[in-house]
Structure formats: C-alpha cells, structure tokens
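Weekly structure sync, notes
Attendees: PL (lead), two postdocs, one rotation student
Agenda item 3: pending single-chain targets
PL asked that the sequence for the first pending target be pasted directly into the notes so everyone works from the same version. It is reproduced below exactly as submitted, 376 residues in total.
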Amino acid sequence: MTINVNDCFFYIKNGANIKQGVISGGIPITRIETLANDTFNRDKMGYAGIHDKKKYTEYILQDGDILMSHINSMAYLGRAVMYKMQKNECIIHGMNLLRLKANRNFILPEYAEYYFKSNTFKKYIKKIAKKSVNQASFSIADLKSIPLFLPNMVEQKKIYNTLNRIDNIISLKNQQLKKLDLLTKSLFVEMFGDTVINPLGWEEHKLEEYIDFLTSGSRGWAKYFVNEENELFLTIKNVKNNKIVLDDIQYIKAPKNKEAERTKVKCGDLLISITADLGRTGVIDKDISSRGAYINQHLSLVRLDQNRINPQYISYYLETDAGKRQFCSKNQNGVKAGLNFDAIKSLNIIVPPIELQDDFVKNIYFIDKHKFPILD
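Predicted structure, written out during the meeting:
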C-alpha cells in the first residue's frame, strides 16, 4: 500500500526558536549538527541556560520522535534520525529540524526511519527541494505530499529487524576497521617517534626541497561531466584518511588542452585539500592513474621526487599532529579556509632515511590487506 507522509504522521512541525550559545548550561536543545552521521549525537546540541521546561512542554522530545533536516546542504537535506529516549533525560526540539510523530496504528517509527534513509525517499526530496546559493530547503506541505510505501505492521517489523541486523554487522566491521587505522598510527609513532618534538632527531626540511611539480585543479569543468563511466574528476570528498576513495565519484570527459594535461594525476602524486577541510591527504595509485583522473580547484597536486622521499610517508606525516598544526597555522583566512602554494612549499617535514620510509609503507600495505576480508 502507498499513502502520503501526511497520512502516517499526525504531527510535523519545526522546533522552538531559541537563540543558543548566549548562556551556557541548562536543558540541551537540538540543532542541525545533532543528526550528524545519521545518528542522534547528544554531544552536538546547543544550550541557552534554560532550566525550567514548562515554557517548552510542547517541544520536549518523546521516545520514537523522528527528527528531519529540512534546511541544509543538498547532500544532507532530508536526513532523518529516530530519537530513543535515555532514562530521565529532557531535550528541547530546536529550530531547523522537523519533528515527526508517527501514527502508530499505521507505521512503526523504526520502519519510517529506514524508509526516510532509502534512495526512493531521497529522490522525492530532490524533487521538492528549493535550492539557494549555500543551502537547500523544502516545505512541510511538500513533505506531506510525498508517497510512502507502507506494508502491514507485521511486514514493517520484519523489514526493520532485518535492516537493523545489517546495521549492527556494519557497525561491528567499522569498529574493526578503526582498530586497524589506530594500528597504522601507532606504527608511525613507533617507527618515527612523536612528530611534534622529533625525539629521534630526524633531519628536518621544507617540503619544497622535494617537490618536482606543484599545481591546483581546474574550475568550471561541470560542462565536461558525464553520467556514464569515464575518466575521474577528483574532489575533496574523494580524499580521506590518506586514501583516494571512489565511492562518490564524478565521471568526466576531459578536454584535450594544456589545462587538462596540467591537472591530470600520475601514480604517486600526493593530493592535499586546500580549501574547506584543510590538509586531507591521499596518494594516487596505479589503478586510478591508469583510468585517467583530474583534480578540481579545491585540491593541490604535489609531485615529489620519489627517489628521495616516499609520497605515502609524507601523506601520513601530514595527518599527524605536526602536520595538522601547520595546516591550522597557515590557514589564509579564518572564515573561508584556504592554502596557497607558498604555504604548501613551506611545510616543515621530518625526513628519515628513504629505506625506513619504504619499510613503513610496506607495513601499511600489509595492514590494508587485512581490511579486505572485513569489507567482504
């Protein structure tokens, strides 16, 4: 059976308009960040010094309420999380999140949460979204009109239980992967010491001493985007945790010109994010370079002298405390983050013997091999 969202929820409203952060403490208040990573984050709420809940009785969250982001960047618009009350807690529903109360004669909140995370629902959100320069939004009226597939209550429970088991398995695998990532960081410290104080006395140099080529990516290449599989267009979201990830990749049919030649990556190129989330790093491997890949303007391409320094080692070094502190201090603007070429060239690095760098990278490959069975 298919019915509209309006028929499944007897209450769909925005939260209380409370100015947060002026006075600390008191009853916590939800905000957009509370739903980060598709979970209810109690450590990402606001405060306004409210201690008496009587004035906000209508806005106190109740177990099974669904919170949904209706003003956000397009990627996170429609993000929905079900609230599970913990013992004796009191939380105020704040602005910029909708609260949906399910008619439990028709729909289980647990089932609704999974439906709202489905690709089907996300397609409807794209249709009703009203885009502006920096964010998108949708109206409650348009949300209410979205059709919702609704099996009977028994089937809803079966679907929820199945998806919940899958989520638990994914969560367990993610925990195992995090442990391997911690092992990698521990290995770096064990081999090279604390990068901030350099207790092993490795030589210190500027990154520019090892750079053969440095550039940033192209602007205005949306006209070259294609939907079918083709060459790759790498952006910040593809550079994460010392890796180049292709989970959400844009395909492109690059032009045959000097700009394309300049921004096309080669195996061993180090990529660094130079706007927004500064200092993300990753190294291009043979597979990506063989497929053909280009970078956008938010990434810098650093081609190093691999006879003298290992790009993978530098990638991991730059994501240690020593690297992160430098990126923070070299930020060109406190409001809109950015790095220029001089800032990249002037990065301080410690340089152990190349043989030791290579040994570290070999160990990293060994650890990564252990990740593949977990991902299967």
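Discussion points:
- The chain has two domains: 2-150, 185-375.
- The domain at 185-375 is CATH 3.90.220.20 (Adenine-n6-DNA-methyltransferase TaqI; Chain A, domain 2).
Action: rotation student to compare against the earlier draft before next sync.
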